[in-house]
Amino acid sequence: MNTTVKQLSKITLADLAIQPFLEVNSAADSFYNTSGKIKTGFAVAINAEKLVTCYQDPAYKQLISTSTVAFADGIPVVWLMSRKGKAGKRIPGCELWESLMQKAGVHQSFVYLLGASERVNALTQIKLQQQYHVNIVGAHSGYFDDNGLIIEQITKSRAQIVCVAMGSPKQEKFIAECREKYPNTLYIGVGGSYDVFVDEVKRAPRWMQRIHLEWLFRLVVQPTRISRQLRLLQFIGLFIRGKF
Ligand code: UDP
After folding, report:
1. Does 6 map to a domain?
2. pLDDT digits (tens, 9 = 90+) for 4-40
3. pLDDT tens across 106-135, in order?
4. 1 within domain boundaries
5. Across 35-63, average pLDDT
6. Which domain, by its residues, includes 75?
7. N or C: which end of the chain has fewer CB within 10 A?
8. Does 2 fall in a domain?
9. Which residue has the higher pLDDT, 1 or 179?
10. CATH of the domain at 81
11. How many folded domains does the chain comprise?
């Protein structure tokens, strides 16, 4: 497998350094160095909602700016990059995570799976082991009271990739805390990716993804997300005011 990935240069959007990628597979490859070792750090998906939250909440922006790889998981972000003359495609977080898991299976990297319901977490473990032979060294659902206990488990597991599927901003806050105590690993915030992977939540049909209407599909399937989706309107408002 070719693990040498020529990186495009980063671009600054709303004071955040975004790493453009041209496709999911090479984005996933970029987490490994040429000798097949995982690069430690913190990967975060950036969409319009996160840009708005960063604008409104400096503490959240501070968390996001500690990431080592911020990738464009949203057409508005891709569009902002292209306005600045940068190539780059949308890298859906759930696809990047699955591609990374496939590579983790090949390299036998130690993976810790945190997040989602107990059932979805368990189904995700089984499917990852069956499909990609992923070496899962620990797992826990995303519902717990004692962060310290989970951080201890992660540390003991000696995980090289820690996947955190707890939604934003919870997952970024957890990653920041865990990273302080256990820094030498790759953290990736993956939101609802496990739910999609085990078919608990359906993704929009391909034709809707192609015309960039995945957000509309999600809204119809999960109407409770309306307040989050309204951030798209705020994004447009902020853009018109020249904030991005
Ligand atoms: N979740 C969790 N712990 C929590 C809240 C949510 O593990 O305290 C999980 C939830 O079960 C789901 C995921 O986080 O699997 C939420 O995904 P969402 O679609 O909201 O994430 P997004 O990608 O939109 O940030």
Report:
1. no
2. 557 899 999 989 999 999 999 999 999 999 999 999 9
3. 999 999 999 999 999 999 999 999 999 999
4. no
5. 96
6. 11-240
7. N
8. no
9. 179
10. 3.40.50.10700
11. 1
Q: DSSP letter string over the chain?
A: -----PPPPPEEETTEEE---S-HHHHHHTTB-TTSPBPPEEEEEE-HHHHHHHHH-HHHHHHHTT-SEEEE-SHHHHHHHHHTT-------HHHHHHHHHHHHHHHT-EEEEEES-HHHHHHHHHHHHHHH--EEEEEE-S--S-HHHHHHHHHHHT-SEEEEES-TTHHHHHHHHHHHHS-SSEEEE-TTHHHHHTTSSPPPPHHHHHTT-HHHHHHHH-GGGHHHHTHHHHHHHHHHTT--
Asked if residue 146 has pLDDT above 60, the reply is: yes
- Ligand 1 pocket test: pick from 166, 193, 214 the residue with the most ligand atoms within 8 Å of its Cβ: 166
pTM of the model: 0.94
Using the mean position of ligand 1's atoms as its centre, give its distance from the Cα of residue 116 in Å. Answer: 6
Decide if pLDDT at 3 tops 80: no
Residue nearest to atom 15 of ligand 1 (CA): 116
Quick one: which atom of ligand 1 is closest to the CA of 115? 7
